[in-house]
TrEMBL record:
It comes from the Bacteria. It holds the Pfam family SecB. Keywords: Protein transport, Translocation, Transport. Transmembrane segments: none annotated. InterPro entries: SecB (IPR003708), SecB-like_sf (IPR035958). Belongs to the SecB family. SUPFAM superfamilies: SecB-like. The keyword Transport applies. This is Protein-export chaperone SecB. The lineage of its organism: Bacteria, Pseudomonadati, Pseudomonadota, Gammaproteobacteria, Candidatus Tethybacterales. It comes from Candidatus Doriopsillibacter californiensis.
């Protein structure tokens, strides 16, 4: 009787790309935004992941909020949620977390950047491409913050007054 000690091959693939939400608002001027010579642009980026009801399927969503300001006035507000469905099999929990928080967002990032650029151009606004973003560094920062919080909680539980 022989045992099969072969490790199954890890699988990680993008199954589908979808737009979950997209909105554009021009609060000041519906027809033509009145940008000054150098508008200020504020970008926010979030990453959300969750397991779907089917085994080994996960949804990862990148959300961006972009504000174009002329002085204090919001000239343009764009919110986009770009989603992806990923299939992950034969991967340990720690590696799966890294795939969902680093590699999946890296795959979706060019899509959300292009969508933002196209939408802003169609609104008559300055065309914006999202700058390069290091999801790996962000993930490491989150892990470090979680470790520090856990060590603080352990320290507080261990002290006796």
């Amino acid at each position: 009787m022989t045992e099969n000690n072969e490790k199954k091959e890890a699988i990680f693939r993008l199954e589908n790309i979808l737009i979950k939400n997209m909105s554009l608002e021009m609060p000041e001027n519906v027809v033509t935004p009145t940008f000054n010579a150098t508008p200020t642009i504020k970008l926010e980026l979030r990453n959300i992941s969750r397991q779907l009801s089917r085994d080994n399927y996960y949804e990862v969503v990148l959300e961006t909020t972009t504000k174009v300001l002329s002085g204090e006035n919001v000239q343009l507000l764009v919110e986009i949620s770009q989603g992806g469905i990923f299939y992950i099999e034969n991967v340990e929990a720690k590696q799966r977390e890294r795939l969902l928080n680093v590699h999946a967002p890296e795959m979706l990032y060019p899509y959300i950047s292009q969508l933002l650029s196209d939408l802003m151009m169609r609104a008559g606004a300055p065309r914006i491409f999202l700058p390069p973003f290091n999801f790996r560094a962000l993930h490491q920062k989150k892990l470090k913050a979680m470790e520090e919080q856990l060590s603080q909680e352990k320290g507080e539980k261990g002290t006796v007054s």
